[in-house]
């Protein structure tokens, strides 16, 4: 076999190996998750109408991948476990559902709506929304830190605050992690609901 023919044979062999390798090394499919309302029903507040005006999530967190804090200066993005919808939209939807449950009202919107009428307007800024892994362990906490403000139906300040909710995650099970995030959001919603309930009680 001459040298040129040998080189062609080797190149063909390598191309077949590469093609076979690419076919057999497909990535595992990503899994997608959604948050759920976990708030418990509270005493109904008659005539209570609420609008989630906006939810701000920093670009570093408002991404499909799960975010894990591994050290004070290091984070990891999980390409194979993702949110099914943008976090800002999901948080607005869950908080609106939570508030409806906590205050016993169906008059809650997850975004401004024309003609919705006088309502309490809630603005939320998420500072942290991450899994904080314990050093050297597989356990950790689902951590949400949120700043929020509430405006009454007359567009006056009804109250504001900061909620830091930390829910334990006993293992690396992502279903448990998502449930822990949902419970943490329920704590944020409970703090907001308390301000609205208190403000209505003054009237």
What would your notes on this structure say?
With 203 residues, the protein is α/β, with parallel strands linked by helices. It has a single domain (30-201), classed as 3-Layer(aba) Sandwich (Rossmann fold), CATH 3.40.50.10610. The chain is 33% helix and 33% strand. The chain contains 3 helices and 8 strands, in the order αββββαββββα. It has helices spanning 3-24, 87-103, 174-201, and strands at residues 31-33, 50-56, 65-71, 74-83, 108-109, 120-133, 140-151, 157-169. Strands 1, 2, 3, 4, 5, 6, 7 and 8 form an 8-stranded mixed sheet that branches. Strand 7 (140-151) and strand 8 form a beta hairpin. The longest helix is centred in the C-terminal third of the chain and has 28 residues, at 174-201. It is elongated and about 55 Å long. The N and C termini lie far apart (98 Å). Mean pLDDT is 85; it is low at 17-25.
Low-confidence stretches: 17-25
Strand-pairing-aware structural class: alpha/beta
CATH class: Alpha Beta
The H-and-E topology, N to C, reads as HEEEEHEEEEH
Number of strands: 8
> What's the number of structural domains?
1
Instruction: Give the fraction of residues assigned to helices.
Output: 25-40%
Largest sheet: 8 strands, mixed
As a percent range, the share of strand residues is 25-35%
User: Residue-averaged pLDDT, rounded?
Assistant: 85
Rg:
24 Å
> Based on the structure given, which CATH architecture is correct?
3-Layer(aba) Sandwich
